[in-house]
Backbone:
């Protein structure tokens, strides 16, 4: 071993070879397929990067085999490879975290410390496996003759290819075992004399093999795809790249030729010099490396940037290998481990002794390990308590077994909860100095909190929010809601738990370990951990990214699903310190009062020409789920022979206010559009992505909406009503009724179309008409449909749109099928709307319908939204006043600022069309609509809003006039007041409602 590790000075040729090999290995950090595809002979050249990668997988084990062929290698060398790889991965991931914190993920971090178990690098795994079996290979190769070695290795090489037909995909560590074969080739070839004739034939065979692969790989690939597209071959029928597979004899012959040419240089290296290649391999194979190297921009030249990055990573590998040899193996834990390995002669002894030490460590630390295990079980149980009979709804139409889902996809969210439970234990343990008391306290609090959240979910469809903690003072009124039976069961459980605690403390006493100072430090650190949630929602912060790396990703859209997948503890912590809006300059109660006075004057001017009162009319806000005019999809081509699916709604352009509505969502965000419509506020004003129904409205006992101008207001939704906390939020809106599936009000005329599981729009409008006809006077109705909700799985029989849709973005059969299904759905919507409009025209009372699609259906990839930002966020809307309303002062249509509007503009537009008087707040909304471009979210995904003019073009906010800037600031001030501020506007007389 001393000869192997003997330090040698590198000569010029050795240095050049190291640099060249490292360079070509690090080139593989980048994807070069498209680059080579632009070169001459592109059909052939685009396979070169793959060929290079596979060659590396063969050559590197051969080189290591040659260098480590001089004598038996102790298993310590395998450990050295592993520890060098782990430290390199740790450093790489730390740099990546500070460079790209948003990529942090605990699953990736798991791979840092267990690179072999998690298949971080097959090549690294192969080298470690080879080091472990090297002594046995050494003995075997020296026991048999040269001819027997050649025959055995050749037979294994051909057998490996023949038995796999070149289909082995080397993407898992287990395939590293195969690389032992090439390691053995390197060991053998390093010590055998090769005649000149054999050398020449080997070089010729290698060159010929290269050309066979260079021409054959693209040729076989072409044949394969021809057969696939013509239906003559299945997906897994054969491998078109079997010539270049790592098991391919042709690839081996080519690599063998290169190895033989440089054999003298290769065998001249020492083992320590080979350590340089471990960081290189990690840089080449690390799962994050592609995004990491691309994140650096040094010049405007992409090619030169790549070259510089390769050089930097090469220097980093060299520097790290020097540091490792100088310092790493002097670190006490590493030094002790190396010494432990060296105490044993073979791998079997090491495994046996390691197992003995490991079991002894488990026995010594059994209390702590069992405590951690209990907290994980406790954490998992708290998740399960929130499920619905051990089912979790993962989409609106699909649920899944909770145990499988949580263990399979929420492992680290459960771990994070367990970490918080352990921190709670540390605090209690420091205070009580009693192990069982502290453990039971954590258990009772965790299970009790989970049950309390489940009770509230069952009662109100939402979890407990931080803002509701002060409700504990109302325990007398809460107790009847919980129920006498549950209270008795809880009391009995508490008595049992107390008795159990006393029993455990007496029967199995556990003495505290460590000094009070040590326990105090842990308690202090635990308190600091409980302070981190105040940064959970601060986008861009370190705590934000670490939290999300644990899979704690709150959507704030469906409270019930959020608590089921994040657990009751994390769900609660996620609601601390929400980042809603930046506080405007000069925000105060007096500022809001000043705005009340300012817009009261404007309201008086507007009301001089308005003769109607809103509360005497029937206003229907009709959110049509995912409704978009199919002809407005980017690049869409619809066969002109098929019926126009939205003929009636398009005809509304002539007899109603009609245009495009800018949606703040794509494929989702229904509740946000609904919130904008009802309140007049705008999602673009928020600092971060959130769902006001879940994060803002619950902070208030009363929240102002357009419905407050009516004596009677209701909502109708022929679907599950608990989404987005609607049940409770509508109460905060002071709605008199909410009709939904499962409510005390029956959904009539339930009709589903084809195989769809959703109630149709015919059902929606039947229930809407029922509500319209149920009241003699005016009323407000929030009417929400569900028919066109995703997915679009070929629901409808006899669909005339199948096969009639094409376009650049409709480039797969699946997308075309979904689009055809969607078109048939909106055709049904069109017919239902036509019937609905026809019926309200016959009703002898003023009715105005605000119809709008809430967002695009999730058919096209959202990646295209950057190419078509306005188009893919534009849905169709119209505002129609029935014949009776028009006869009593309502306008047929508005023509000013109606081409592109935001959902938040609807109230101002509706008031103008119905010729209704306005409040000061509605006067502000009127000014915003009339004098500003449409305000919407930043479609680039950045913070802040964007402005869109009537031609659908973006407007630079800096180009607004001083008057427009002032209106925008006033609007922002009022929205801040009702979202992140003190709600002073509710106390400003008459600001939101006439007569207040």
Residues:
């Amino acid at each position: 071993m001393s000869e192997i590790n003997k330090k040698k000075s590198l000569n010029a040729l050795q240095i050049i070879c190291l640099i060249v090999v490292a360079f070509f290995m690090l080139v593989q950090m980048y994807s070069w397929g498209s680059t080579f595809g632009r070169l001459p002979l592109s059909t052939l050249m685009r396979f070169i990067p793959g060929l290079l990668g596979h060659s590396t997988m063969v050559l590197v084990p051969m080189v290591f085999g040659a260098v480590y062929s001089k004598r038996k290698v102790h298993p310590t060398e395998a450990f050295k490879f592993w520890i060098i790889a782990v430290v390199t991965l740790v450093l790489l991931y730390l740099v990546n975290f500070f460079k790209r914190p948003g990529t942090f993920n605990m699953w990736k971090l798991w791979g840092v410390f267990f690179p072999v178990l998690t298949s971080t690098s097959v090549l690294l795994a192969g080298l470690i496996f080879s080091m472990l079996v090297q002594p046995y290979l050494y003995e075997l190769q020296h026991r048999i003759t040269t001819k027997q070695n050649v025959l055995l290795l050749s037979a294994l090489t051909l057998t490996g290819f023949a038995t796999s037909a070149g289909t082995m995909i080397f993407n898992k560590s287990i395939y590293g075992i195969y690389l032992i074969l090439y390691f053995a080739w390197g060991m053998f070839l390093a010590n055998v004399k090769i005649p000149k004739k054999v050398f020449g034939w080997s070089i010729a065979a290698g060159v010929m093999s290269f050309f066979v692969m260079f021409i054959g790989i693209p040729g076989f690939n072409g044949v394969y795809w021809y057969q696939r597209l013509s239906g003559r071959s299945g997906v897994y029928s054969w491998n078109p790249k079997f010539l270049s597979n790592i098991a391919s004899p042709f690839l081996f012959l080519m690599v063998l030729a290169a190895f033989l040419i440089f054999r003298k240089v290769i065998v001249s290296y020492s083992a320590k010099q080979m350590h340089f290649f471990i960081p290189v391999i990690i840089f080449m194979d690390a799962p994050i490396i592609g995004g990491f190297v691309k994140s650096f921009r040094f010049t405007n030249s992409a090619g030169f940037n790549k070259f510089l990055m390769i050089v930097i990573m090469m220097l980093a590998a060299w520097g790290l290998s020097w540091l490792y040899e100088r310092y790493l193996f002097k670190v006490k834990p590493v030094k002790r481990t190396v010494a432990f390995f060296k105490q044993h002669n073979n791998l079997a002894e090491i495994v046996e002794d390691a197992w003995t030490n490991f079991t002894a460590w488990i026995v010594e630390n059994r209390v702590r390990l069992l405590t951690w295990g209990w907290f994980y079980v406790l954490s998992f149980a708290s998740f399960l308590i929130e499920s619905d009979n051990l089912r979790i709804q993962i989409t609106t139409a699909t649920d899944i077994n909770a145990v499988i889902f949580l263990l399979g996809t929420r492992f680290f969210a459960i771990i994070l909860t367990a970490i918080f439970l352990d921190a709670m234990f540390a605090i209690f343990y420091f205070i009580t100095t009693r192990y069982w008391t502290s453990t039971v306290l954590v258990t009772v609090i965790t299970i009790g909190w989970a049950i309390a959240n489940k009770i509230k979910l069952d009662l109100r469809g939402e979890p407990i929010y931080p803002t509701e903690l002060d409700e504990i003072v109302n325990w007398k009124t809460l107790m009847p809601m919980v129920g006498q039976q549950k209270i008795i069961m809880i009391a009995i459980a508490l008595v049992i738990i107390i008795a159990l605690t006393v029993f455990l403390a007496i029967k199995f006493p556990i003495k505290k370990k460590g000094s009070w100072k040590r326990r105090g430090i842990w308690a202090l650190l635990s308190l600091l951990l409980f302070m981190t949630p105040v940064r959970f929602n601060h986008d861009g912060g370190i705590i934000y990214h670490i939290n999300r790396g644990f899979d704690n990703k709150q959507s704030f859209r469906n409270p019930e699903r959020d608590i089921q997948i994040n657990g009751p503890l994390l769900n609660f912590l996620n609601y601390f310190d929400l980042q809603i809006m930046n506080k405007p300059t000069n925000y105060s109660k007096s500022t809001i009062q000043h705005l009340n006075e300012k817009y009261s004057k404007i309201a008086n001017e507007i009301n001089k020409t308005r003769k109607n009162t809103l509360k005497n009319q029937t206003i229907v806000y009709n959110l049509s789920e995912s409704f978009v005019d199919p002809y407005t999809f980017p690049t869409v081509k619809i066969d002109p022979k098929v019926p126009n699916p939205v003929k009636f709604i398009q005809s509304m352009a002539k007899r109603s206010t009609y245009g495009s509505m800018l949606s703040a969502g794509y494929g989702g965000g229904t509740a946000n559009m609904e919130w904008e419509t009802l309140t007049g506020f705008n999602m673009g004003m928020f600092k971060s992505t959130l769902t006001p129904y879940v994060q803002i409205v619950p902070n208030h006992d009363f929240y102002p909406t357009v419905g407050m101008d009516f004596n009677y207001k209701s909502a109708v939704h022929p679907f599950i009503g608990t989404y987005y906390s609607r049940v409770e939020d509508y109460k905060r809106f002071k709605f008199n009724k909410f009709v939904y599936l499962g409510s005390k009000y029956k959904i009539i005329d339930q009709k589903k179309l084809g195989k769809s599981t959703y109630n149709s729009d015919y059902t929606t409008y039947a229930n809407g008409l029922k509500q319209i006809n149920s009241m003699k006077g005016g009323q407000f109705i929030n009417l929400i449909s569900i028919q066109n909700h995703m997915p679009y799985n070929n629901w409808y029989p006899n669909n005339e749109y199948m096969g009639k849709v094409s376009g650049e973005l409709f480039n797969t059969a699946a997308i075309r099928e979904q689009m055809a299904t969607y078109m048939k759905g909106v055709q049904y919507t069109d017919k239902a709307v036509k019937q609905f409009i026809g019926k309200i025209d016959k009703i002898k009372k003023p009715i105005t319908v605000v119809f709008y699609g809430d967002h695009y259906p999730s058919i096209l990839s959202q990646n295209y939204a950057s190419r078509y930002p306005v188009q893919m966020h534009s849905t169709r809307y119209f505002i129609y006043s029935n014949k009776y309303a028009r006869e009593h002062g309502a306008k047929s249509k508005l023509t000013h600022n109606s081409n592109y509007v935001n959902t938040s503009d609807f109230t101002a537009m509706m008031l103008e069309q119905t010729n209704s008087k306005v409040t000061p707040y509605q006067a502000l909304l009127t000014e915003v609509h009339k004098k500003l471009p449409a305000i919407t979210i930043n479609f680039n995904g950045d913070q802040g809003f964007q402005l869109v003019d009537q031609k659908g073009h973006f407007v630079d906010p800096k180009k607004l006039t001083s008057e427009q800037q002032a209106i925008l600031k006033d609007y922002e001030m009022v929205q801040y007041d009702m979202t992140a501020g003190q709600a002073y506007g509710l106390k400003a007389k008459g600001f939101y409602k006439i007569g207040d």
